[in-house]
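Dear U.,

For the methods section draft, I wanted the exact inputs and outputs in one place so we can describe them consistently. I've listed the two proteins in the order they'll appear in the manuscript figures. Please don't edit the token lines directly; just add comments below if something needs changing.

First protein:
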Amino acid sequence: MSHKRVAILISGGGSNMLSLVDSMVGDHPARPCLVLSNDVEAGGLKKAADRGIPTAAVDHRPFKGDRAAFEEELLKPLEEAQPDIVCLAGFMRVLTGDFVSRFQGRMLNIHPSLLPKYKGLNTHARAIEAGDAEHGCSVHEVTAALDDGPILGQARVNIDTGDTPDALAARVLVWEHKLYPVVLRRYASGDRTPVLLP
């Protein structure tokens, strides 16, 4: 069986990356081929290396807002790894349409809201402030528009009275770690049917 090659982009500790990596075993149709970060000190790089996964980092800071130049450097380790699928897992840089178009139809992202609600940042606080009864996370195909593209899976959690953004974020993260591996497995098998958890 030839496995799909998966590159995972991270910016921090890589908890979603680990949930993906640890799921890609046995009869899973995919295997990790690279963990790539925009921060050379991202904690997830060491965790990936400890699991024997190739890693690379391209620090975005020297590029002073020149996204095209940063992405040109980011592409080098990606093209070398030749991924079939690219997973954004807490990658905190907005990618240009040019970059996304290179991986159109094979790039996934996980976002902490029930899209199309609350694109962008501070999703947990925004859901609480809006008085929503539920919140959650979404996995979607990446398009040039921010947090847009076909939704491939969602997991929902109730918002409790007195919830804080941090408390809500912690509960949503548990479901992120469950949802993303389920979607990736199906996606790598060619199944684009949306998943709803729990």
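Second protein (the one for the lower panel):
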Amino acid sequence: MTAHLTQKENFLRVARGEMPEYVPVSTFLGPDEPLITMADPCILGSFRGPGGGVDPWGVTFVTGEEVSFAALPKPNDFILTDITKWRDVIKAPDYTGFDWEAAAKADYKKYVKDPNQTAYVLSGYADIFQQFIGFMGFTEGLCAIYEEPEEVEELLDYMLEHSLYITKNLLHYYKPEGYYLLDDTASKLNPFISPKVFEEMFVPRYKKCLDLVRDENVPIFYHNCGRCEDLMPAMVDIGVSVWDPAQLENDLVGMKQKYGSKLAINGGFEFSMPSTWPIIDEEEVRQAVRDTFAELAPDGGFIFSGMIKSLDFFDPKVQEVNGWIADEAKKLSKTVYQ
């Protein structure tokens, strides 16, 4: 098959619910230009980076080798301990004098090396669940959601004004090719909150931001790890078009049958380390990739992304296995839609 579309054009077809020429393959690691940037605009700072830092609300994020330098709110250092006192503690960031136009130019230059290969996808910082949990921690935060829902909702509305401010300016000055909502609300086994609470408390607030994005015809990417399929119908209803990462804890085949290309599955693959590690059968790994393509690629709506389940990205054996996965996916990519 001769491909006529660039990597980015083909990828954005999937994000818009259209039929691509070939299956996009997103590996994130290696020499290839990434499909998407998944970046924070510089106004938010670099707290989610490998060095950690302080987010716009004053929450300290820390990192470390044990979590592969992913930034997490500093344990037991929560800025809000009593939800009824949030008005005294939580203060919206002040961006007086911030030069959005200059920031947009600088960020584009920073994140996009090849505009023909990488889609400019940016966060609007509408992840109000994670922000809220960052204020209080999971134990107190989840208790507050169930014990003081009115106080929580008033705080969420206050936080939402900040998300709307970021989103409006992002759309105006940055002209992104995709909008990224990163808000993990599920564990490996189940959502942290019931679908009913999710739909009543969070979805209407997400919708206010996503309506702005839909008005600009920008595809919406939703990051939610773990088993979150129970929450996805409400998110599809408000405009989410790409689920990233769609992990194996979910019924991905069932979701594909239900939504087709309306909800693109980005992910769909993980290979567990065998008990014989580091001895591993290359053909078994490649067959697992082929099986994933057979289940999820037909009729579009699929972006392959995945690797062996390990955070030790620099282990030579892990890199070798991930190389097999990427190689097999790229071979299959151009053949599925012939």
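Candidate sentences for the figure legend, describing the second protein: The domain at 7-333 is CATH 3.20.20.210 (TIM Barrel). The mean pLDDT is 94.

Thanks,
Y.
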